[in-house]
Amino acid sequence: MEDKFAYWHGIPREEIEWNSTIDESKCVGCGMCFISCGKKVFDYDFERKKSVVARPLQCMVGCTSCEVWCVFDAISFPDSQYVKNLIKERGILKEVRKKLEELRKSGNIQK
Ligand code: SF4
Ligand code: SF4
After folding, report:
1. Could you read off the pLDDT of 32-45 as tens digits, one per residue?
2. Whole-number Å distance between alpha carbons of 55 and 59
3. What is the rounded radius of gyration, in angstroms, for the C-alpha atoms of the chain?
């Protein structure tokens, strides 16, 4: 089930326009994206033999793995500059630096 309360670096996930889109005219239903996505973004329609973007908000912001995996070039994403701008405009690097410093002080090298 989709977690509507998920955040990405403090930003409500539903405010972030980042997810895979399938061009059904190119999708041959090989299932690679459905089987491989660790975030369970896709369902598979066995009748139509197509993968379906069922849980777009579960897509990891900035991930484009399934675009690479789809040898039929049926999957696309917004321009990666959108995510880079988000990181700059929402001060995410500041928060990351803070977390790094917390980890350094705690002597913990794992997140
Ligand atoms: S990997 Fe591409 S062709 Fe295969 S099911 Fe996914 S979108 Fe369709
Ligand atoms: S980009 Fe990554 S997280 Fe998003 S649907 Fe593709 S494989 Fe899953």
Report:
1. 999 999 999 999 99
2. 7
3. 17
Q: Is residue 5 over pLDDT 70?
A: no
In a domain? residue 34: yes
Record the tokens describing residue 67, joined without a space.
């675009």
- What is the CATH classification number for the domain harbouring 27? 3.30.70.20
Measured in Å, residue 39 CA sits from the centre of ligand 1 at 16
Residue 110: pLDDT band by 50, 70, 90 thresholds? confident
Nearest CA to ligand 1 atom 8: 27
Q: How many domains, in total, are found in the chain? A: 1
Ligand nearest to the CA of 54: 2
Q: Which atom of ligand 2 is nearest to the CA of 75?
A: 6
> Is the CB of residue 59 below 6 angstroms from any atom belonging to ligand 2?
yes
